[in-house]
């Protein structure tokens, strides 16, 4: 069985997925070790399906159970650890709510990365490493214009998590993998 960290895009506000119901639906569908973290679309589960088949099955379960399709991005624990280790702003982890990782569906083009980097303002920093974009917003993500446009500028579907959430999901996935 492979452990996956499954991220739902644009969850929150009016687009909530009740975590207990989500957990039950995924367990009923045959996924193992289903755990959730906070109300923003974070699931750790195990499956014998390959990544694409797992994503399709999760998507079908969620659409059938909640009546709306969801964009889903997933990584296995090794890929997740690589994202964490590649953090180009290690000094930013002292304020983990100001460091955000956009997990990208695929690697963006070099041209799109150049456009994104050219939009940095004030004290914000952004970098793309593989299929992850790192955004440090020391003045707060809520006022960051760049935070709202990362996905649009990179032209790749993405979902963002702050550093606390990234580390917590890593911990959860390691625990499931360890059995």
Automatic annotation (TrEMBL):
InterPro entries found in the cross-reference section: DUF1697
TM segment ranges: none
PANTHER family, per database record: BLL4334 PROTEIN, DUF1697 DOMAIN-CONTAINING PROTEIN
The name this protein goes by in its record: DUF1697 domain-containing protein
